[in-house]
Amino acid sequence: MNIMKEDQKKIEQLLTNVVTHSTNFFNELDSRPVAIQYYQPSKDQLPELGIGANQTLDYFVQHYSNGLSASAGARYLGFITGGATPASIMGDWLASVYDQNVSSSQDSVAGTLETETLDMLKELLKLDTNYSGTFVSGATMSNFVGLAQARQWAAHHYGKDLTLEGLFAIPSIKLISGAPHSSIFKAASMLGMGRNSIHLIPCQENQEAININLLKEFLEQNKYEPCIVIANAGTVNTVDYDDLIAIGKLKKQYNFWLHIDAAFGGFAACSPLYDHLVAGINKADSITIDAHKWLNVPYDSAMQFTRHKSLQVEVFQNNAAYLGSSIDHPDFFDLTPENSRRFRALPAWFTLKAYGKEGYQTLIEENVTCAKNLEKKIINSEYFELLAPVNLNVVCFTLKQESVTAEMIKQFLATLNQQGDVFMTPTIYNGVSAIRAAFSNWRTESKDVEIIWKSLLHAVLLKKS
């Protein structure tokens, strides 16, 4: 018996069963534990004969479903994780059903839809229309693509083509930043420039924004070399923003590539209350934006934008006769490390069409309101200490006691997260072991802040007892 063919005949029933299970999960997110302690399920073995799709779903629900957390819910404040909007889930399911490989724009309308989605995102984020863009898997890959172009740009300064000659052909390239995300170091490693090529410029006092005067001094000292400046539009600890306008003005004096990491902070552009934070973003040569953060689409999804598509093609062109590509007529597989690409644009297209500018303005402003409500509670608390003002949607705080250690924070978070009402992650800010609470989910409301606060206080009392 061909079980695949049998399941094909039952596809409506199979998908109906998945819808029922998914709906139950979706509706139970508020009551489901936000974090679940790791456990090791019994080891599965590959069956000689398959059990079919329905029985596999039943087996999954019985053995694994309860071990999955409500990370898509309102009180998951770890990292910067947005929960998928209803419309984006629709698009994501259809991306699987249609199963398009958007490596080429020639064999379906999928490529056109991706381009239209990127145009809508540029409008939402107030990016110049002459940026070109592509979807990638996440902010790490977006930073990688942007810095790969920057590396090629630097090589052109020396009259070299790194795609042909390799890094041995040029001197070491200097990357400059104030408070770079960890993925910047990872990208520098993958690109062969090396983590040690990143030069950290001190930030302004009690901020994570780069000191512009010290940046200018560094550029002056290295004015005969092509440099890569990596600016932040939203740091992970305090959502601080570099002065993008001032950095953009320095481009008139010095020879550098400006890459802006706006993975989630770029969404400040959605609100007239906060769009001043990203003023100057259009001075960038390349920009990172993450979709599975504040756009609230399912993992994995991000975008990279560039003013230098020709450099992008030099780096990533895929010379294969059977694909029909050429450097004069590049396609999607000539623009990123991937040849095969999931239809990532479809969930983003669905959510942008469904909720529009107003929907995302509301999402951003409500998340910021929640963060500021938690900030007020911490300021007035005898148990916690705020480490930095809340600039946008992340609250950075610590325990109010002397000599807080990383181990103390680890133990406190273990107690907090195991209660299942909220999930937060540790960090270090200005040398102090701390806690991050990142609000980025479309579901989160003021009532969730009250639940979060009660859970924090309960965790304190548990640690004291």
UniProtKB/TrEMBL annotation:
The keyword Amino-acid biosynthesis does not apply. Its cofactor is pyridoxal 5'-phosphate. It holds the Pfam family Pyridoxal_deC. Keywords: Decarboxylase, Lyase, Pyridoxal phosphate. It comes from the Bacteria. PANTHER family: GROUP II PYRIDOXAL-5-PHOSPHATE DECARBOXYLASE (PTHR11999), MIP05841P (PTHR11999:SF70). Belongs to the group II decarboxylase family. This is Amino acid decarboxylase.
